């Protein structure tokens, strides 16, 4: 399991959302597998991405702050104060029992005389009021799994540590999208008295990428062009998660124009795949040779084009 998410990003627990985002972007640029070939960079990047996914969402961050590393296993209807008091009371009772002291009671008499399972009642199954319930199936659970754009495109095998501490291999199918759920049957909460375990649902999060932006099944990528390629038209190479592709640039293309490569986005096992949209960005040489300057000056003298004209 990853360490404390605040420590992973190198920010204090009081950090603002902007500070968390800045820290993530800086670390992601340093450790993304596409730019850092160190053997441990990919694991570090996944750890950074998981920390950011949790802390960048105010509600998820609130639960993490309240419940700590167990926040994914705590049902959503559990009150943080009740949880904290229950854990404190359970610890106090254990200590008191070791010393032979009287049974601990919470201030105000709440939950007096009960054990930890009594306090949380039927949330996790078990006993209440000294009675054993019948077999209770295990609860379904959720956890997030962060994948790269390349993993979402091609599919992948990942090793995952479950809330129980056991590691399992997970198949990431090609074409998964942000928010999609992957079901691991029988890997959720344990059932009582031989009842079946619940299922674990992995919620897919696609990590930010230095080149690609995923929107649904479509993938957006910047396409740098020289002024002459944009003006005259050209066929140029563009990187895609599936490898290099060729895109035809029509003559007269300006920055911001989207060139669509149909079917080159995320695959769709049940239908039409997404598209890749290359956004033209016209670039000028930062330093001109004498000949380039002469030619640009000649073009300036003969051209009637005015980019600021409203016509």
Task: Give the topology.
Blueprint: H1 5-9, H2 17-31, H3 41-55, H4 58-67, H5 80-99, H6 116-120, E1 127-128, E2 131-132, E3 141-147, H7 149-154, E4 156-161, E5 167-172, E6 181-184, E7 200-206, E8 212-215, E9 218-225, H8 227-232, E10 234-240, E11 243-249, E12 258-261, E13 276-282, H9 290-302
Parallel strand pairs: 3-7, 9-13
Antiparallel strand pairs: 1-2, 4-5, 6-7, 8-9, 10-11, 12-13
Helix pairs in contact: 2-3
Notes on the structure:
The chain is an alpha+beta fold and 311 residues long. The protein has 9 helices and 13 strands. Among the domains are: 80-132, no CATH class; 139-207, Urease metallochaperone UreE, N-terminal domain (HSP40/DNAj peptide-binding domain); 212-302, HSP40/DNAj peptide-binding domain (Sandwich), CATH 2.60.260. Helix 2 runs antiparallel to helix 3. The radius of gyration is 28 Å and the shape is elongated. Helix content is 31%, strand content 23%. The chain starts with a helix and ends in a 9-residue tail after the last helix. The strands form 5 sheets. The chain has a 4-stranded mixed β-sheet with strand order 8-9-13-12. A 3-stranded mixed β-sheet has the order 3-7-6. The longest helix has 20 residues, at 80-99. The chain has helices at 5-9, 17-31, 41-55, 58-67, 80-99, 116-120, 149-154, 227-232, 290-302, and strands at 127-128, 131-132, 141-147, 156-161, 167-172, 181-184, 200-206, 212-215, 218-225, 234-240, 243-249, 258-261, 276-282.
Strand order of the largest sheet: 8-9-13-12
Low-confidence stretches: 96-133
The portion of residues assigned to helices is: 25-40%
Structural class: alpha+beta
DSSP summary: helix tally:
9
CATH homologous superfamily label of the domain at 212-302: Urease metallochaperone UreE, N-terminal domain
CATH-defined fold name of the domain at 212-302: HSP40/DNAj peptide-binding domain
Shape: elongated
Number of strands: 13
- The CATH architecture term of the domain at 212-302 is Sandwich
For this entry, what is the oligomeric state of its chains? single chain
- Order of helix and strand elements from N to C terminus: HHHHHHEEEHEEEEEEHEEEEH
The overall average pLDDT, rounded, is: 81
Name the CATH class of the domain at 212-302.
Mainly Beta
Distance between the termini: 60 Å
Strand content: 15-25%
Kindly provide the radius of gyration, computed on alpha-carbon positions and rounded to a whole number of angstroms.
Answer: 28 Å
Largest beta-sheet details: 4 strands, mixed
């Amino acid at each position: 399991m990853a360490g404390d998410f605040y420590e992973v990003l190198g920010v204090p627990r009081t950090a603002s959302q902007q500070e968390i985002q800045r820290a993530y972007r800086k670390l992601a640029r340093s450790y993304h597998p596409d730019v850092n070939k160190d053997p441990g960079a990919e694991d570090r990047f996944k750890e950074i991405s998981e920390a950011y996914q949790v802390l960048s969402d105010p509600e998820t961050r609130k639960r993490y702050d309240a419940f700590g590393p167990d926040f994914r296993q705590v049902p959503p209807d559990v009150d943080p104060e009740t949880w904290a008091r229950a854990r404190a009371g359970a610890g106090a009772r254990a200590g008191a029992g070791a010393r032979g002291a009287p049974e601990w009671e919470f201030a105000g008499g709440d939950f007096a005389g009960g054990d930890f399972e009594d306090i949380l009642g039927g949330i996790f199954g078990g006993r209440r009021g000294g009675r054993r319930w019948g077999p209770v199936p295990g609860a379904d659970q959720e956890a997030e799994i962060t994948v790269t754009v390349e993993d979402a495109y091609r599919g992948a095998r990942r090793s995952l540590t479950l809330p129980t501490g056991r590691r399992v291999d997970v198949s990431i199918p090609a074409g998964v999208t942000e928010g999609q759920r992957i079901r691991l049957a029988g890997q959720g909460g344990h059932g009582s008295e031989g009842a079946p375990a619940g299922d674990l649902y992995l919620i897919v999060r696609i990590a930010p990428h230095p080149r690609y932006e995923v929107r649904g099944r479509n993938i957006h990528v910047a396409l740098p062009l020289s002024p002459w390629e944009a003006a005259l038209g050209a066929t140029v190479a563009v990187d895609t998660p599936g490898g290099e592709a060729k895109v035809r640039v029509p003559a007269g293309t300006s920055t911001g124009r989207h060139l669509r490569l149909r079917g080159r986005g995320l695959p769709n096992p049940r239908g039409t795949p997404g598209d890749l949209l290359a956004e033209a960005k016209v670039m000028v040489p930062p330093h001109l040779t004498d000949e380039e300057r002469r030619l640009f000056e000649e073009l300036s003298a003969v051209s009637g084009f005015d980019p600021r004209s409203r016509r």
